[in-house]
Design a protein that fits this description.
Layout (H helix, E strand, L loop, with lengths): L2 H6 L13 H13 L3 H14 L4 H13 L3 H14 L6 H14 L3 H14 L4 H14 L2 H14 L17 H14 L5
C-alpha cells in the first residue's frame, strides 16, 4: 500500500492498525494486556468503546483489564455492561471469569467462587474457570469444592505445578498473583 492509500484510510503507521476501527482496537488491547501493558490496554479499550459504545467485546475486555489491575468495582461495572449489551454472547465465560478474578483479588472469595462456578457452567472446557473456583474455595475453607476445582484444572492442564509458566496471568499487583497461587496450593496444587 502506498503512502497516499495508507493516509487516506487513516492507518496508524506505528502499528498498522486503523485508529478509527473499534474492531481493530480490542484485539490490540488484549495483546497489550497480556504483555503486561495495563495502561496501554485500558486506553485502547476505552478508544474502542468511544468508537463503538455498543461493543460488548471491548467493554468486557476493559473489565478484564480492570480485574487484572485489581480494580474490582470498575471490573464489575464494565462486565455488567458487556453482559447487558450481549446477554447470549459466547464470551460470557470470559466475563464471568473476569468478575471471578476481580473478586478473588479483592478478597471477596464467596463472590469469586460463585462467578467462577457460573463461568464453568458457561464453558467447562475453559481451564481458568476451574482454577479460580479452586483458589476461591480453598480460601473459604471449602476443601471439597477446592479439590474438585483443582481436579478440573489439572484435567485440562495436565502436570500443572505452582511454578508452571502456564499459570502466568497479567496481574498488575504481585499480591494478586500470590493470592491465586496460594489458593491453588491450599487446594493441593504441588509446588513442583
Amino acid at each position: 500500500m502506498d503512502g497516499f492509500a495508507r493516509r487516506s484510510h487513516g492507518a496508524d503507521e506505528r502499528n498498522g492498525s486503523d485508529e478509527q476501527d473499534a474492531a481493530a482496537q480490542t484485539p490490540l488491547g488484549i495483546h497489550e494486556l497480556f504483555s503486561f501493558q495495563h495502561d496501554n490496554a485500558i486506553r485502547r479499550f476505552l478508544r474502542a468503546i468511544h468508537l463503538d459504545p455498543n461493543s460488548a467485546y471491548a467493554r468486557g475486555y476493559l473489565g478484564t483489564a480492570y480485574a487484572f489491575g485489581g480494580e474490582c468495582d470498575l471490573d464489575i461495572q464494565n462486565m455488567q455492561e458487556a453482559m447487558r449489551l450481549s446477554p447470549r454472547d459466547f464470551l460470557m465465560v470470559v466475563w464471568f471469569l473476569g468478575n471471578a478474578w476481580a473478586y478473588l483479588s479483592a478478597g471477596k472469595f464467596e463472590q469469586a467462587a460463585d462467578c467462577a462456578k457460573r463461568a464453568i457452567d458457561c464453558n467447562p472446557a475453559f481451564p481458568d474457570t476451574h482454577g479460580v473456583f479452586a483458589a476461591a474455595s480453598a480460601h473459604l475453607g471449602h476443601m471439597a469444592d477446592a479439590r474438585a476445582g483443582l481436579d478440573g484444572y489439572m484435567r485440562l492442564m495436565p502436570g500443572l505445578t505452582a511454578g508452571d509458566e502456564r499459570l502466568i496471568r497479567p496481574f498488575r499487583r504481585p499480591d494478586d498473583r500470590e493470592c491465586f497461587l496460594d489458593g491453588l496450593r491450599k487446594a493441593g496444587l504441588p509446588e513442583k
